[in-house]
Amino acid sequence: MGGIVRSYPAHFFAVMSSCLKPLIFACVSVVLVGSAWVNAAPEGFLEGHLKIYSPKEVELADATPSKMTAQNYAQYPLIVLSRDGKKQIAPVTADENGNYRLALSPGDYVLDVQDRARRHVRAKPQPFTVVSNQTVHMDMNVDTGVR
């Protein structure tokens, strides 16, 4: 009793080997990236209120006090920086009422007015720490310097 023996050419194994290597690499990469994503710490949140003021209120001709508008808040964008202040992490946009909320990875940061020094705006950079699944409240007061 005999059997049929097939003989495959050598290039068949070379081709199969070259096709399997990228496939195996892709599968291992997906597993590693997926496990890193699952193990990543949940984000925390920064929220607060942007208050823009000047030491002396500007008096209008009709004697009605000036009101803050969304345009006023847009003139003073905020920025989240790394703790050392050298790396920009995320811009912060206040809504029409001056409130803001931002999701961040856990870590130490600084909240500042974007281009504060160049624009000669008086505001104190605020250091803060974000913890997973928690909200840190940090208000920013901006002195426009208008006298």
How would you characterize the largest beta sheet? 4 strands, mixed
Count of DSSP E strands? 8
Q: Given this structure, which CATH class of the largest domain is correct?
A: Mainly Beta
CATH architecture of the largest domain: Sandwich
Can you give the mean pLDDT?
A: 77
Radius of gyration: 29 Å
Helix proportion range: 25-40%
Q: Sum up the overall morphology in one term.
A: elongated
Give the distance, in angstroms, between the N- and C-terminal Cα atoms.
108 Å
CATH homologous superfamily designation of the largest domain: Immunoglobulins
N-to-C SSE series?
A: HEHEEEEHEEE
Total helical elements: 3
- Low-pLDDT residue spans: none
Report the β-strand fraction as a percent range. 25-35%
Count of separate structural domains? 2
- Going by helix content, strand content and strand pairing, the class is alpha/beta
Q: CATH fold name of the largest domain, please?
A: Immunoglobulin-like
Question: What is this structure, in a nutshell?
Answer:
With 147 residues, this protein is an alpha/beta fold. It has helices at residues 10-39, 70-74, 116-119, and strands spanning 44-53, 78-82, 88-92, 99-104, 107-113, 126-130, 135-137, 140-143.
What features would you describe in this structure?
The chain is α/β, with parallel strands linked by helices. The protein has two domains: 34 residues; 100 residues, Immunoglobulin-like (Sandwich), CATH 2.60.40.10. It is 27% helix and 31% strand. The protein contains three helices and eight strands, in the order αβαββββαβββ. The strands form two sheets. Strands 1, 4, 7 and 8 form a four-stranded mixed β-sheet that branches. A four-stranded antiparallel β-sheet has the order 3-2-5-6, with no helix packed on it. It is elongated, with a radius of gyration of 29 Å.
